[in-house]
Design a protein that fits this description.
This is Universal stress protein. InterPro entries: Rossmann-like_a/b/a_fold (IPR014729), Universal_stress_UspA (IPR006015), UspA (IPR006016). With 155 residues, this protein is α/β, with parallel strands linked by helices. The protein has a single domain, classed as Rossmann fold (3-Layer(aba) Sandwich), CATH 3.40.50. It has 6 helices and 5 strands, in the order βαβααβαβαβα. A 5-stranded parallel beta sheet has the order 3-2-1-4-5, sandwiched between helices. β4, α5 and β5 form a beta-alpha-beta unit.
Length: 155
C-alpha cells in the first residue's frame, strides 16, 4: 500500500511524533522513508538585504539538522533532502518527483499555533498534495506514549 513515505520536517517538536508514526507505517509496509526540510524563501526575502545571506545560512543549518535528526532516529536507511522555496509547494513537488505514496507532517511547525487546527503549511499540504497526507498532532505531555507500537493507532 505504501512504498515511499515523505516526512516533512522543520525540526519542531510537532514533527517528532509525526516522524515516529511515519517510521511505524514505513516499517509495517516495508516502505522507503524520505526526510525533507524546506527553507522558507519568504522568510529570507522578508529580511533586510544586509541580513539575507546570514539568515539563509542559519535556515540551511536548521534544515540540515532537522533531516539529520530524522536520519538518526531511523532503524534503516533514510533519504534526506533540503530545498528552498514555499514549504507546502516544495513538499508537494518533492512527493510528485519521487512518486511518494504518503506525506507525513506535524500539525504545527516552528511558527507555533497560528491556526486553530492545523499550521498554515500543514493545511496547504493537505489541500494541494498529490498523495494522501498524514497529519500527526503533538500530544500533551500527560498524553505522551512511550510505546512506539501504539503511536499509529493514536494518530
Amino acid at each position: 500500500m505504501f512504498d515511499t513515505v515523505v516526512v516533512a520536517t522543520d525540526g519542531s517538536d510537532s514533527v517528532k511524533r509525526a516522524v515516529d508514526v511515519a517510521f511505524d507505517l514505513a516499517d509495517r509496509f516495508d516502505a522507503e522513508v524520505h526526510a525533507l526540510s524546506v527553507i522558507d524563501a519568504s522568510e529570507v526575502d522578508a529580511s533586510p538585504q544586509q541580513l539575507r545571506e546570514e539568515l539563509r545560512t542559519a535556515l540551511e543549518t536548521t534544515a540540515e539538522a532537522a533531516v539529520a535528526t530524522v536520519e538518526e532516529r531511523a532503524d534503516g536507511d533514510v533519504t534526506t533532502a533540503t530545498r528552498e522555496g514555499r514549504p507546502a509547494a516544495e513538499i508537494c513537488e518533492y512527493a510528485r518527483e519521487i512518486d511518494a505514496d504518503l506525506v507525513a507532517t506535524g500539525t504545527r511547525g516552528r511558527h507555533g499555533e497560528n491556526r486553530l487546527l492545523l499550521g498554515s503549511v500543514a493545511e496547504r499540504i493537505v489541500r494541494t498534495s498529490p498523495v494522501p497526507v498524514l497529519t500527526v498532532r503533538q500530544l500533551a505531555p500527560a498524553d505522551d506514549d512511550d510505546d512506539g507500537e501504539t503511536l499509529a493507532a493514536n494518530a
